[in-house]
């Protein structure tokens, strides 16, 4: 479904009210069963509260969220606002569905409206996707429903499986499961992966998956497991003083780790290696299937270990150093989880029932997605010389600090108290100024993309 573009919006006020279409939010609330008829709890104001009511406490509470809602719901037509007990009752599974639907809607907008594009050596890809997961600790009361995977005590936890899109500069997909669901089960590969690069950590390591990615015309970069078995087919490159005297025929078909044991502990080797990716049966006879992939071996003097990377990207397109840089880019999704937990309160509300735990996580994800959307709009509408001064990490801090000011301006705008336009202009000016770094520097999350 095509969404209205945010390009061409003149100011922060127009961005907010184009993004938060009241009719759409109320329609979604009805479709998910959260609202049957509009009474004291306004779904639009609740969403504003959950997104912009950023906590100033170390551990936010539901009472604090209720107080922010009461401050925003200053409608003179309503003599008494919703009471705390009634407010709490609305935090149920229907609100979970409501928030999840909104999150998916705004993710879809980010994917289709993003003003960013790939740059430099990765410009030939359609997108770069980085997948990872993070565990969120929840109340021990939920241990029987969601027991922790590696904890010895009765800890409980949920896991967020997220996919970061470089083109969208945000999360493209987010799924919440119990902590014991393995990461590899969440990696889905199909025709849509064509000309897309996937960068994953060892939790998603699977030779069958790598083979499938190549089959569908996609690309990948991953670390290699320490117990992997593979044989050297040929040597693309290595330290010249070593490869010039190496008997290449002698090292053909040697085990990969045996090859590295024989090499001096330094430099970078670019190899073509053969891996056993599975078996097939022909006339009831099981025949092993081998496939060749490129392996980059980098010696790390700090850890005194070889770091091995597997990829299907050809050496003609990317050098060994390029592959190493691509894998380092995987850290960007770790920074996103750090941002969610540090600036947006994710995991800080230890709530005693299951719906509340999911509501908390979906609220924080929704907050993050809206924040990144606004970040992209701020950068895209800034002067060319200033674009490089905006960084996602600084932005998240400024956004969280300005959240309550958003609520205050929205209150004045919604209920017609005086001239609010000057406050919108002042808030936008403040966001643009405070979120801009003093120096132009390339940040990791914008290393391979830029916002136009």
From TrEMBL:
The keyword Metal-binding does not apply. GO terms for molecular function: DNA binding; transposase activity. GO terms for biological process: DNA transposition. InterPro entries: RNaseH-like_sf (IPR012337), Transpos_IS4 (IPR047952), Transposase_11 (IPR002559). Transmembrane segments: none annotated. Residues 125-357 form the Transposase IS4-like domain. Keywords: DNA recombination, DNA-binding, Transposition. Pfam families: DDE_Tnp_1. SUPFAM superfamilies: Ribonuclease H-like. The keyword DNA-binding applies. Belongs to the transposase 11 family. PANTHER family: TRANSPOSASE INSL FOR INSERTION SEQUENCE ELEMENT IS186A-RELATED. This is Transposase, IS4 family. It comes from Methanospirillum hungatei JF-1 (strain ATCC 27890 / DSM 864 / NBRC 100397 / JF-1). The lineage of its organism: Archaea, Methanobacteriati, Methanobacteriota, Stenosarchaea group, Methanomicrobia.
């Amino acid at each position: 479904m095509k969404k209205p573009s945010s390009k061409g919006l003149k100011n922060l006020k127009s961005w907010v009210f184009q993004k938060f279409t009241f009719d759409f939010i109320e329609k979604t609330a009805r479709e998910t069963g959260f609202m049957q008829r509009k009474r004291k709890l306004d779904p639009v104001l609740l969403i504003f509260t959950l997104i912009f009511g950023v906590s100033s406490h170390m551990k936010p509470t539901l009472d604090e969220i209720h107080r922010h809602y009461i401050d925003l719901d200053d409608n003179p037509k309503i003599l008494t606002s919703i009471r705390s007990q009634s407010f709490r009752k609305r935090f149920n599974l229907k609100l979970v569905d409501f928030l999840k639907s909104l999150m998916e809607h705004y993710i879809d907008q980010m994917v289709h409206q993003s003003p960013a594009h790939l740059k430099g050596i990765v410009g030939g890809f359609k997108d770069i996707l980085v997948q990872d997961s993070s565990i969120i600790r929840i109340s021990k009361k939920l241990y029987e429903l969601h027991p922790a995977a590696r904890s010895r005590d009765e800890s409980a936890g949920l896991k967020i499986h997220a996919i970061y899109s470089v083109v969208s500069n945000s999360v493209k997909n987010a799924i919440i499961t119990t902590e014991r669901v393995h990461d590899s089960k969440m990696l889905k590969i199909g025709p849509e992966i064509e000309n897309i690069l996937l960068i994953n950590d060892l939790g998603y390591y699977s030779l069958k998956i790598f083979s499938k990615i190549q089959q569908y015309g996609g690309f990948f970069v991953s670390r290699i497991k320490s117990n992997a078995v593979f044989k050297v087919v040929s040597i693309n490159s290595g330290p010249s003083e070593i490869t010039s005297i190496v008997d290449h025929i002698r090292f053909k078909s040697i085990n990969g780790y045996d090859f590295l044991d024989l090499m001096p502990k330094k430099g970078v080797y670019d190899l073509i290696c053969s891996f056993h990716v599975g078996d097939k049966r022909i006339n009831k006879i099981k025949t092993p299937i081998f496939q060749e992939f490129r392996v980059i071996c980098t010696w790390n003097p700090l850890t005194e270990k070889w770091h091995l990377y597997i990829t299907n990207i050809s050496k003609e397109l990317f050098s060994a150093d390029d592959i190493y840089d691509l894998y380092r880019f995987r850290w960007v999704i770790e920074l996103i989880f750090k941002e969610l937990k540090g600036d947006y309160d994710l995991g800080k509300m230890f709530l005693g029932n299951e719906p509340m735990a999911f509501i908390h996580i979906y609220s924080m994800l929704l907050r993050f997605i809206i924040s990144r959307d606004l970040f992209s709009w701020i950068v895209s509408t800034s002067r060319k010389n200033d674009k490089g001064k905006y960084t996602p990490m600084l932005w998240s801090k400024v956004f969280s600090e300005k959240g309550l000011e958003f609520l205050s301006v929205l209150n004045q705008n919604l209920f017609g108290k005086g001239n609010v336009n000057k406050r919108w202009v002042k808030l936008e000016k403040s966001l643009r100024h405070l979120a801009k770094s003093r120096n132009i520097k390339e940040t990791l999350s914008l290393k391979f993309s830029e916002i136009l």
